[in-house]
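[recover] target loaded
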């Protein structure tokens, strides 16, 4: 269902912005919250996690989706290679080593002595099957488009412990891409996605009661170090206040995605979550087809006020779509303070050349996209109105927002400024540019041949040359295309109880590795 934001709310938001008053954080107690505990909770043997939503599937080839990956990745199933989310280094997992053995060929050594949850041994044949299933099949896996850009791979198991992967063109980051492919046994369906997968991970699915909970049991035959908790139980509550209350009342140990008003120093930890918020400006529709108007929008946004007040300081004003730590991040790009005079001058130039500045622009945002998203949309509406732009807010559900986010875009809807939140999970700007910057990218409304060529050239490089080339691409996008008006690099809030010890990292929101969670000192197991 679509709904417009009532105008009376604007006064409240603008008052908050102008006053820069931070809202107090508090956790709301909720009666009968149906805690995440079970029979093992009392002695600490069960790790209790409350999510914001029930995963739609646990299909491993969909694990690049946050709602699936937060349960599946490196818990139920595992990839050949695991990326360290803090350092960006690639670590051996089901592959013990890899090397480039030709211009377009890589060879991977497969770990011996690993068994799937069903007892079957893991071999290179299973790895080859899993890659072929996720990338080359007709399953339409999210990992295929997001990570491999719909390019097919040549895959061959040359022995039980050796695998070769061949690409159409040289790909210096193929091992990084393969860190997104979770391994499943040969014979897993290639005609339909599975709901409850078999993997090699430290936990196996013990039960999924739809609408209620998912339970995992520790894999006692796991090839690696055993995790601390014998049982893990996930439940889901859509309200952040309920999730916070469950932490406060000792009914849950961990909770994803708390809102700032529900978080306290006692019940949560803030962490960089790889997400960047921005307005995507449809450069195919007037007046947004005028780069002067797009740049003026970027100049008038008060990022600092939005980050400080609406995000409660859980955001750093941004000047690019990727945060620090991602290959290609450009440290020379600095978030600008608002410059209303310069912004108005650009708009007046566009007006003098006939730009239809009175044409209605629809600012599309998604309910629950991030905390206070509606208020953020209202603040942006007000700031753009200072340029004389006619902006209407449209709040949508997830399905409707996806229609605006992904090609093919809705037709005959006029100029759209889409509020997006992009998370670069892989740590390389190629995963951003291929989606959001190239002219025909799945989430890009337009571009230029020149920028497309620079992106294509950067993708073929490695090392420092790759870093420098993508940093230049991000600067060029700001100067010559200006498809995006950035808001902030975001920080997440992980709810955590006194019963466990866990240090969140930039990937925590996408893949909560259960092996990294331990009982607090003095707690039982």
């Amino acid at each position: 269902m679509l709904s417009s934001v009532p105008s009376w709310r604007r006064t409240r938001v603008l008052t908050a912005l102008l006053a820069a008053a931070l809202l107090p954080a508090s956790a709301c107690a909720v009666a009968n919250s149906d805690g995440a505990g079970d029979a093992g909770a009392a002695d600490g043997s069960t790790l209790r996690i409350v999510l914001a939503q029930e995963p739609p599937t646990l299909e491993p080839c969909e694990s690049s989706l946050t709602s699936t990956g937060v349960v599946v990745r490196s818990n139920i199933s595992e990839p050949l290679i695991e990326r360290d989310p803090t350092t960006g280094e690639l670590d051996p997992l089901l592959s013990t080593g890899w090397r480039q053995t030709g211009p377009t060929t890589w060879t991977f050594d497969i770990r011996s002595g690993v068994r799937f949850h069903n007892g079957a041994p893991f071999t290179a044949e299973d790895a080859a099957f899993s890659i072929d299933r996720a990338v080359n099949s007709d399953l339409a896996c999210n990992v295929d488009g997001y990570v491999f850009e719909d390019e097919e791979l040549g895959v061959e198991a040359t022995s039980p412990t050796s695998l070769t992967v061949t690409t159409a063109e040289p790909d210096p980051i193929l091992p990084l891409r393969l860190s997104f492919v979770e391994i499943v046994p040969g014979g897993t369906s290639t005609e339909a996605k599975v709901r409850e997968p078999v993997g090699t991970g430290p936990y196996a699915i013990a039960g999924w009661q739809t609408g209620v909970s998912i339970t995992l049991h520790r894999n006692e035959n796991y090839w690696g170090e055993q995790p601390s908790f014998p049982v893990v139980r996930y439940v889901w509550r859509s309200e952040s206040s309920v999730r916070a209350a469950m932490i406060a009342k000792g009914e849950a140990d961990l909770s994803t995605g708390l809102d700032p008003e529900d978080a306290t120093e006692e019940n949560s930890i803030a962490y960089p979550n790889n997400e960047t918020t921005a307005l995507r400006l449809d450069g195919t529709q007037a007046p947004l087809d005028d780069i002067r108007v797009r740049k003026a929008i970027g100049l008038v946004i008060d990022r600092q006020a939005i980050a400080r007040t609406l995000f409660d300081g859980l955001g750093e004003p941004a000047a690019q779509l990727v945060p620090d730590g991602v290959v290609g991040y450009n440290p020379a790009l600095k978030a600008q303070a608002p410059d209303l005079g310069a912004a108005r001058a650009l708009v007046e130039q566009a007006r003098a050349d006939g730009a239809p500045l009175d044409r209605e622009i629809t600012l599309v945002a998604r309910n629950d996209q991030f905390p206070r998203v509606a208020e953020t949309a209202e603040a942006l509406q007000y700031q753009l109105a200072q340029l004389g732009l006619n902006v209407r807010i449209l709040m949508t559900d997830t399905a409707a927002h996806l229609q605006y986010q992904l090609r093919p875009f809705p037709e005959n809807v006029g100029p759209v400024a889409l509020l997006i939140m992009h998370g670069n999970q892989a740590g390389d700007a190629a995963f951003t540019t291929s989606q959001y910057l190239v002219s025909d990218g799945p989430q890009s409304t337009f571009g230029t041949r020149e920028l497309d060529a620079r992106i294509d050239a950067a993708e073929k490089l490695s090392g420092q040359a790759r870093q420098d080339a993508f940093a230049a691409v991000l600067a060029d996008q700001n100067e010559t295309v200006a498809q995006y008006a950035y808001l902030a690099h975001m920080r997440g809030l992980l709810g955590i109880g006194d019963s466990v010890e866990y240090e969140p990292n930039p990937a925590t929101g996408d893949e909560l590795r259960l092996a990294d969670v331990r009982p607090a000192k003095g707690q039982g197991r």
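[recover] notes: The mean pLDDT is 91.
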